[in-house]
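Below sits the subject:
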Amino acid sequence: MTQDITPDTFIDTSNEPLSPDEFDAIDTILDDLRSRYDETPQWEFCEGFMAAVICCRRVIPQSEYLPVLLAIGEEGGEDEGSFASPEQQAEFFSLWTRRWNEVAHALNQEVEALDDDAAYHPEVMDVRGAVAALPEAERAEMAGEALPSFGQVWALGFMFVVEAWPDEWTAPRDKEAAKLLNSALEAMVALTEDDTDEPTLSIFDDEAPPSVSVKRLNAFADAVWAVYDLRAMWSNFGPRVETVRAVATPGRNDPCSCGSGKKYKKCCGA
């Protein structure tokens, strides 16, 4: 079916947090989209993508960024996905917009610590921890599989936006701001790397086997603070101003630049 994605099609101003069941509903929709387009990302990637778009310098409209994220295109297009129905599309946009409002609201708050209830808490999974908690037989079936590190997929989603819209992440002329930008992006890039240190922590369940290193947890915190820094910095600078280049105007008695062969004063300058 043809997808008509417009920025104002689904407007939801609610800041009500998504429930676990509603995050499951998003996962179900993404799984269904993946059945028609196997490169449809997991939610954690979408979460990082969303955070980057929210704190980007330019306000990128929904009609521009969502086709890049989900590869939704015209009916019959190659290598493109599609929603199963208008109802599924509407449900996705409603849930997406509510999560967007929640993240944007959190990033606009002044928080002292990331454990503050008002702080931005990325919706990420501890895949290694979940696998480590499986029964031994099920763990054995997954032996040798490459499992993402904590926060890795979220950071990859964020950096996907940076790479897709590089002009919006060009360093400003202000040296302090440029330094802040580089530091923030370095923190995010560091999180895209694998956690190779010894796991000593369990993120979501104190009783589960350790799956995350202290270094990794600190890197994740640095990346979340980096999102706050980027949001604040770009809000202060505002959108980029396009450079206007002046074109020299011919003298009145010079040949007209349109190529007519007439003098400028008798042609375009008349």
Q: What stands out?
A: Residues 214-237 form the longest helix (24 residues). The two ends are 54 Å apart (CA to CA).
